[in-house]
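To the wet lab folks,

You asked to see what we're planning to order before we commit. Fair enough. Below is the target structure as tokens, and below that is the sequence we designed to fit it. If anything looks off to you, flag it before the synthesis order goes out.
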């Protein structure tokens, strides 16, 4: 069960949506932020890892930058529980860049693309 205010990250190689669990009991997800490669790159969240095609490189770069953003959130004590929902390739890249603190606060990972799903559909997939 997700704690109140747990961070739920739903991502693919192109964008991410950050939600918080606003329910005192149970799960009710409220969107708090949308991240794109442009707004992560504007903040200097790391450089492109060496990958194959330009599309793969863009997706891997975004996944790495997203993991670095989550690391910062956790290290700044802005989340006590984290759930990551991402397509398999994005999740694979993100895992390589998790900080130990983030790993310790990771409640669940779901290897699935739910970026176009509603908050209710995401909550259902997590329960």
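Sequence we intend to order:
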């Amino acid at each position: 069960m997700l704690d109140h205010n747990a961070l739920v990250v739903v991502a693919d190689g192109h964008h991410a949506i950050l939600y918080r669990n606003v329910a005192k009991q149970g799960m009710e997800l409220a969107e708090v932020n949308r991240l794109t490669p442009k707004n992560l790159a504007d903040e200097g969240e790391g450089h492109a890892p060496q990958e194959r095609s330009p599309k793969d490189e863009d997706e891997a770069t975004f996944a790495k930058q997203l993991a670095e953003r989550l690391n910062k959130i956790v290290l700044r004590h802005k989340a006590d529980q984290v759930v990551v929902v991402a397509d398999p390739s994005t999740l694979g890249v993100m895992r390589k860049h998790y900080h130990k603190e983030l790993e310790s606060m990771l409640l669940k990972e779901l290897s699935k693309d739910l970026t176009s799903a509603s908050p209710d559909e995401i909550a259902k997939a997590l329960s």
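Structural context that might help your review: Helices lie at 37-41, 54-75, 88-95, 100-105, 119-126. Strands lie at 7-11, 16-21, 29-35, 82-86, 106-111.

Thanks,
Computational group
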